[in-house]
Records
---
Amino acid sequence: MSSVVQTAKVMVREVGPRDGLQMAKAVMSTGDKLGWIAAMAASGLRQMEVASFVPPAAMPQMADAPQLVAAVRAAHPGLHVVALAPNLRGAQNAAAAGAQSILLPVSASEAHSRANVRRSRAEQVAEVARVVEWVRGLGEGAPRIEAGISTAFGCSLQGQVPADDVLRLAAELAAAGADVIALADTLGYATPSQVRQLVRTVRAEVGPARFGNLHLHDTLGMAMANTLAALEEGVRGFDAALGGLGGCPFAPGSVGNAATEDLVYLLESEGFATGIDLGALIAAREALRQGLPEEKLHGRVAAAGIPRTFRATLPAPAIRPSAAPLAGIRVIEFSHMVMGPSCGMVLADLGAEVIKIEPAPAGDNTRRLTGPALGFFPTFNRNKRSLCVDLKRPEGLALVRSLAAGADVLVENFRPGAMDKLGLGQAALAEINPRLVYASCKGFLPGPYEHRAALDEVVQMMGGLAYMTGPPGRPLRAGSSVNDIMGGMFAAIAIMATLRQREVTGLGGLVQSGLFETNMVLTAQHMARAALEGKEPEPFGDPDMRKPWPLYDIFDSAEPGAQVFVGVVTETQWRGFCEAFGLHDLRDDPQLAGMRALAANRPRILPRVAALFARLPKAELMARCEALGLPFAPIAKPGELLDDPHLRASGGLLPVDLSGAEAAPRDVQARADAGLPGLPVLLPGGRPALRRQPPRVGEHNAEIAREAGLSEAEIAGLTARGILAVPQAAPAAAE
């Protein structure tokens, strides 16, 4: 798969000759307009609103609309010419002049609609339908009909405009047949959270292909911030006017469009290609000045000059198909063992920057665990950086608080109250960073049990999972930290949901994931059965467990110790199985007709099948099951999976350095080819990759401290006093 970054393209529509001039004090001559339009077209602009087809008495600036559109079409064949028309007559005149797109304004504000087009909102929707019907009769080459929802974010005449009104209006315009539906912040009242929410809902309602440009005014200086918010929601078309001219004469207080120069600078700096030469665009202001010498022009980039650091069309990693969708999200992780680190690992694998806070001087105690916990640290701490710091010292605590102040997410899985005692609880950090998503991974969610100590074993025992796993009377822990891992995963899901919500509200908040509650998700299916049958279900370890299928069992093959699970779970599979393995008498037995009869006769079926399988080598048995399309599986051991051909071929094994497991035998301390499983997902850019090996103790102390603003002398001083641990050296190669 190619790793070349594809730069996203954004269409900038210049609206100066239409919107920009309708508030100008003087009338610009047709010749001056044509000179100005030519200068802007030379900069690379490919779309332009050049006129409004309205009565000249109402707007003298637009009296030359027919001549201007025709002249621009003739002089600039590569320019897409757009004209505004408030009604069918105006649309007919615009089409006759050669406009390629016709924009019909439809106000979301009832008061503005009556002031602007002298019609109610419903009447203007009906007018759009009339225009669409007329245009459809023109055949090939007919102009595109765009419906622009003005005052979508508020109105000086009406005040608030409910988002539901805008959404309903968008649906009505789509039903009326508009090719494109656009949103306009006519008064410049919008904020980024409003833009995100309204763009998201309207795009979902009308579809991304029908969603048009976002038309932003800069009355309150929010246009560029709102542009970024819209880009995050997938908007790839924006209106602007050179020099920030424009406004609506029928909406008091509407002044100034987004300046095209500033918009292009922002887009190109953020890696979105516009195809516009910023220097040439700014030079086109001179033609505007000549035509309107008394008009004040705006635009910060033109006033300050193009920075020497500016480079057009930089790559935009955030918008390429990538295996790192959380790139740009910073996570501070206070955790040990499995649940918290699992959450951090999921976020890190998806591209977040995760800083693991470890206690000085020796780091996370999980590094030194033995036995069944030997592999915990390297398994759950890849793609993270390590800051090993003494939080009991004021300087260490101050460093971590400064990191939290700029973070997006904090993950912790310590005992209840531990973070509060350090001054790092959710309430304390919300005061310095209200956007922080604070995730607590606990044994229990709030309730009677919340102060109990919890382990995976504890919740498996009390949550019914151990009962369902073992044989009768012998509850058995599952052979993995299933609740810890899933609890971390559920925390990551809650974090991502809250980050999405933060785009609308601007605020983070507390999310919690419970170990016990995670276990209950696993046990829910058995609880449902108990409720339906009125008795406890038999555990899976019960050899007499009722199974609803004829085969759903582990069988011995001809090779000692080589076992295979085989399932036959449909009547079609059963007939094919009997045919392939020569069990014709079972296939044709009328007492075995139907799945219920097959399940009831398992005691009769299983010995026949077991004896048959015991004569077959394991490889042959699996090959025959695979040819039949049956569910089957060898009984594999963990070490065998290190070389599993499917995992290796699919990119499912990551070459993880195991040296973080400090209690491991020395001959594997520096091994970096173990191949531990990655996230079990495939994203548009591929499988999530290994970007960083599990960190050594304090490996990234200096670089993280620099990012927090500390000088080299301050870092050296903290290290000398033991507040920052001395970074652990890389392990020596095995002898």
---
Amino acid sequence: MTKQQSIQTDAASAVILQIPLEMLSISDLNPRKAVSEAHIESLADSIERFGLIHNLAGLMDEDGKVGVVAGGCRLRAIQMIAERSKTHPFTTVPVKLAADATEAEDWASAENAAREDMTPADEIRAFGRMKERGASVPEIALAFAVTEARVYQRLALAGLPEPVLDALAAGEISLGTAKAFTLSDDEALTLSLLDQVKDQAVSEAAIKNALHPDAIKATDRRAKFVGIEAYEADGGTVTRDLFSDEVFLASPALLDRLFAEKLDAARADLVEKDGWAWAEARNEAWLNYYELDQMKLARLYPIEGDLTEAEAEDYDALADLANGGVLDEDGEARLSKFQAILDGDYSKDQLAHAGCIILVNGSGKIEVTTGLVRPEDKKAAIEAGILQAPQTSKSDTPKSPYSQKLVADMQAIRLASVQAALLAKPELVLDLLGFGLSVASGSFESVFGIRLDRPTNAPSVEDGFISEPRLEHGIDACEYWQKGTRVDDLAEAFAAFREGGKKARNVQITEAIARTLPHRAGGPEFFGLIAEEAGADIRKHWTPTAENFFSRVSAGHLVDLLCEFLDCDARDEHVTAFAKLKKAEKAEKMEKLMSDPTTQKLMGLTPDQKAKLDKWVPDCT
């Protein structure tokens, strides 16, 4: 219950009478008007258990009724007890009566001003004394109108050496510092450290570390991996902080042994159950890729599977439902099955010639790097056809990550960008036309023998591609016949055409001639010159997406691209997390990285890297 200071009164007016409960009410002079119901209920429980410790104070009117000016909460609690219990003891209540209204008002003001909560040190000692007398935690909570959690915390502090509580009472240490000392069972160490921290700005963490210099937090990756229950079952001791969620493991050697045993068991399973030729366990929390390079390990990847046409349609439908959050459990199982096929798996030959490295990451989870071929196993792996022989000639080039169809699509997209750029350069078009028809280019073709070819300038996958409408008019003669647009009177059509004027004529010439430009006209260098002078920009007409590009290259190439975009190597935390994703997830992530500001922020892109992404095109155009 709240500690209160006794009301000081003149002896002549210090009259205490037993007043019938029904004659009592809260006086208008009582300054405490708003009181929580929970507080009154808690106070009522306390009074029922321990009785009324402090009397009420009030002013009696001429009818014998008393208005309570001090102790309004106690009166409300007594009234609550009377309402809920027919056998309550409060038929009358002791009330100190004031001589007049002035004295009553002074009492009301004095009690309200003098009310003061107990200091932490006083509360700790008071709770401790009640506990020593046999009071339970609920009883202490009732007596002081506080929560049981607060009692438990204060009782934990009550066990501290007296000098610590004295220092707390004197303001030489903070309550947080006192809480940190509860982790110590060594009184000599506690008192020695107390002398060092009095009147000093020392953090709780520093005190905890000084009390348990060898203790390991339960948030340590080794503790997470082993598990607190397993650690305690093997005899390990822990210290739990009542004032936070922190748990400290006091036996580092035991934890290290359990960690090594569990990690080795997981390593053995990779060989005995999963079928790898070898497996190596590492104590580090991350893989040192430089060290792997020094070990000259080769890397194998799972063999990606293919879906039938019907399965692919089913997969797309399930993926749409999943994206909409309406996929049921059976659908999720089917989608996972299809995804597993697409992700592929290692073959028996790959397992027989390769191994893996296993470690526990910073989150306490196992990470396995698979498909590693040691130098001494490379020859056998090459003979088995699962590893490509090293290139011995400088003329040898690595296998392109792009399929022929993807290359053709990207070339069509580049052509579309150059043709579209030429539309804004009619003089350049006419220069090219004149040059191409003249002997200066080595051509002897007649102007009237021009053939308006229509090279492919649209990709097979149109997602992310924006065509130029002015380049779509050049349909072939068959389409003219089918659509009934054949011109019957050429003379009349020609006259109408000429009435449009030279500007309209030049526009038609520019559009028609630009549409005939083939990919890499005149060779790569000359075509590059045309593209540069026209100001062609592929990204004005095409944006890389999961559908049109990223899903059409290998998962390994996607990892390489991410390293390129982030200007980092494969050891970067973003890259290692990306490498664990399924291929479809990788493609989706790369699409978002291209255009989604949230993803770019999460991946830590700099303004320069964003600018590079806005201009990036694959090197197969």
---
Amino acid sequence: MLGKILVRYLAPAWPLLVLVVVFQLGQSIASLALPTLNADIIDNGVITGDIDYIWSTGAVMLGVSLLQVICSLIAVYFGSRLAMGMGKSLRGDLFHRVVAFSQREVGQFGAPSLITRNTNDVQQVQMLVQMSATVMVSAPMLAIGGIIMAVRQDAGLSWLMLVAIPVLLIAVALIVVRMVPAFTRMQARIDRLNQILREQLTGIRVIRAFVREREERERFGGASADVMETALRAGNLMALMFPVVMLVMNLSSAAVIWFGADQVQNHGVQIGTLFAFLNYLMQILMGVMMATFMFVMIPRAAVCADRIGAVLETEPSVEAPTESAVVARGNGRVEFDHVSFTYPGADDAVLHDITFTAEPGTTTAIIGSTGSGKTTLVGLVARLFDVTDGVVRVDGVDVRRMDPDDLWARVGLVPQRAFLFAGTVASNLRYGDRDASDDDLWRALDLAQAKDFVEALDGGLEAPIAQGGTNVSGGQRQRLAIARALVKQPEIYVFDDSFSALDLKTDAALRRALDRNIPDATRIVVAQRVSTIQHADQIIVLDHGRMVGMGTHDALLETSETYREIVDSQLSAKEAA
């Protein structure tokens, strides 16, 4: 998977890749030329006392060194551009794929894991590319070119390379093999740490309300300790690699001097040649050492690439049709035709054979006990997931045949958990319509019974909203979420238990405003309170995913035992009538 990702994202940037290769090649050639020039100065200048030769050859060495530095700087610059560009593209594709996921795929991977894959995992692959751009030419050039040049200097000592290089490669390979499982465990434990931290930040009020700070600190500390332990194992292996490399290099240097001294003493080799051979051997081993950096990073990057690839290769279960049906703008009629739904991996269906029609200009209410499938049912209208059996139609067309953007443009969904984005009141409301004027926003706030408290905020429409809307109350969040849907002005409104945090007076005023100002829209309301839905045109009663009643409030009091039990548990006999 790592190779597949690299080919896919580096191929479009081939001009940068060519520039990196060219300048790395220039740096390597300059590096290989310096020991030979140094040997010439020693043998033909220092020993003979030829000052002019020393100056002339030294000037050439200075020029070659300057060329080496310039090529290195340019190669690193273009290599960084290459890596950062690839990381940007990879993160973008990963983000767009996750955004296209239905709730099924998000639940499959888990939100903390998806966050880790789009941040830490991409960073590891990006670092590998940057490292590769730095050494992908230099390392093999220094190793191969160094071998050739060393043999040219002194073939008699070349047997030392046949010992040093295999020893170094075997030692590095043994370490790398043990690092792969350590990095695999590390990424999984980072996922777990992110999950716990996310839960604690989201549920901080619950933690404090139940005085569970100590237990949560211990839980986070345990997860953090697991990450530390795994990181230490991987770090110890990584730290072991460099002493091994240095040990082999130093032993090789000592061996060259030991065996080369005899040849110099017997006039078989000149001193400059011996130093040149030693420098080339160091370059060879340095090339191998640079390659070990790659070996260190490849296992972790490969694990991360597999995790990234798993997301990129997962097709969303809710997909746009190959040929979308052309649907004329209708009135927002919603039909459920013998609909059943089963979550993946579940043994039992959540919804069984649901059939009803929500007509334009009417309010269809859905009520039932907790876990009866109310939220799942309205999620099928917006196609957050697809039905298992049956058909959901909007204006007579199966939602699976509609372009998702067209469907979502017709539906204004106010979710069970009102969520606001970091920004301002205005920026949140304009999620419904980015071109809405301030007058449109105030009109929607007035309908949603939110105008008074927004006017009281410092800044009004420009008042800041924290991430998740944590700086406003639950009822205020719900009213802002309702106003956001009203700004959109869709044909179908789906209120998924969106009035639960409102007091009865505000609830009643809001329902009257909706009836008065959006009389032609189709309204589907999920509620727990009977007072919220008793005046609906039709009420659907769910029990364990089955329709056990449908009709008006008065009709259901006579025909549905389940509905009567719900009413009796909430209203007095006078209120129910």
